[in-house]
Amino acid sequence: MKLPYNNKQTFPPILPDHDEWPVVKLSKHREEFVELVTREAVARIKALRPGTAELIKELEATRYKEKLRLQNEPWEVDPDDEVAFWKKVKADLMEISGKKETGGREDEILERIVRRYADEIAGHFKHSYYRLAREIVTFGFARLLNASQADNFAGLFRGKRTLRDKIRIRGYVEQLRKLAKLGTIVMVPTHFSNLDSILIGWVIHELGLPPFIYGAGLNLFNLKLFAYFMDSVGAYKVDRRKKNLIYLETLKMFSNLAIQQGCHSLFFPGGTRSRSGMIEKKLKLGLLGTAMEAQRINYEKDNGQRIFVVPVVLNYNFVLEAPSLIHQYLEREGQEKYYIDSDNYTTSYKIVKFLIKFFTKQAEISVTLGRAMDLFGNFVNDDGQSIGKLGRPIDPKGYFMQDGRIVYDKQRDEEYTRLLSQRIIEEYHKFNEVLPSHLVAFVAYLVFRKKFSNLDLFSFLRLPEDEISLEYITFMEYVKKVVDALKMYEEKERLLLAPEFEKPLEELVQTGLNNLGMYHAKRPLLRHPLGHIYTQDLSLLYYYHNRLVGYNLEQYVR
């Protein structure tokens, strides 16, 4: 499968008048929308917890979980009145606890909590801020890009390279643009870095699409550098600390209603950044299910508004947070077998330092747009028609029909959502662009692992660095086998290869070694002046190797 790149093409806006952007319309009526979310979410929660006693029990559980959150995980971004708000909730619940007649006070408490959640979740999109944020990102990143070829400070402003040279976009771009005019897009990218949100936002603008709303982790708003951009470009806040039913139902209702109102939406269905470095193997179904529900309601309203799901695969040669992420993964998987201090990147200074390092190195980002699907995993053509397994157009409305009418069936819709998530994962693997850094990490790790096959994973990762080395000639023999297999896989449309795979093998490998983990203090893979291959951080090598897990390529390194 040879998907072309779109880096030289200019895409005019599909909606030149920003007043026509769905996100602008939503923002202009933010208060009314928050009230709508509150009303609908309250109704949903009361249906899930019918009866006074059940609802009060849920309110008390929520209040207690929020107390623990504030004690154990307070964040800078938390409102100043957070403690006072939940103390008031506690006092109000104590007044009605155990009473047969509550006068509906539990409904009032529920509504107050839901409205607070809905107001926190909703973004503050403003076109003037969006334009400024976009210009700052484009200007700043472009200047950093040109620094890689500048001999002095003035060279930062004379360089010829652009972000389109650095960020490679390929895939079904024209189809996406056409479908964005016909219906509502739900974009579902892989998630590896905190930079993903800004990256995708830039790509959306570059392709001439109106801004999307998207769920951004509330933790990003702790970073002042990120908070300004997030709040300006359509982000709604998702607080992963809040696990209670009331918050989750409010969040899902926000997404559901925004999609119903035609807002193109983006969320990371993996739920959080991949800790292992692997492409997601399992997706969170909550927000994905909101698109399913929105489509059913659109059919019920007979407004004809179709919803299209577009998988997107992001690939980096190195990930800022990789040391922290892989340590979290190993700690969770190994428990007592693996302990290491957390290495996190949670300050604006470290983010800026990373960006300078990244954009002054010769390493590209890969963004691949997959083929659009309907909510049932059927591909759609450029006219928005769903194409069934026999290659003929089908009407997806029929999936919701029973006895000639649209019906709500919770169990059925949940199964549809689960099947859709499996199709998205399949597309992630199919549109994954293998970078040279992935190649060298994958081969080196497996050869090292083979030498110590008697050890379990955690014992292996604790081996001293001087025990881990490999003759370059042997390494290249395995690389050639894997490259041949990768090219065969690409022909069979199982994955994509970066353009560097057209280069001679020696040059391809050198590019991979130069780019792999270039930011990290300890490099995952290096070539010694004496010729052998070695690692300074085996856990990081494992992380980058994991990007090619799931293709059965291990058979070529035996």
Report what the structure shows.
Mean pLDDT is 88; it is low at 147-160 and 341-345. This protein has a seven-stranded mixed sheet, sandwiched between helices. Strands 13-16-15 form a three-stranded antiparallel sheet. The longest helix has 21 residues, at 52-72. It has helices at residues 22-28, 30-48, 52-72, 82-96, 105-121, 127-147, 163-166, 173-182, 196-206, 224-232, 245-260, 286-301, 322-334, 348-359, 410-430, 436-451, 457-461, 472-491, 505-515, 538-545, and strands at 167-171, 184-189, 213-217, 235-238, 265-266, 307-315, 365-369, 386-387, 393-394, 401-402, 405-406, 433-434, 469-470, 496-497, 526-527, 533-534. Among the domains are: 124-317 and 364-430, 3-Layer(aba) Sandwich (Glycerol-3-phosphate (1)-acyltransferase); 433-556, no CATH class. The chain is built from 20 helices and 16 strands. It is of the alpha/beta class.
Structure in a nutshell:
By secondary structure, the protein is an alpha/beta fold. The chain is built from 20 helices and 16 strands.
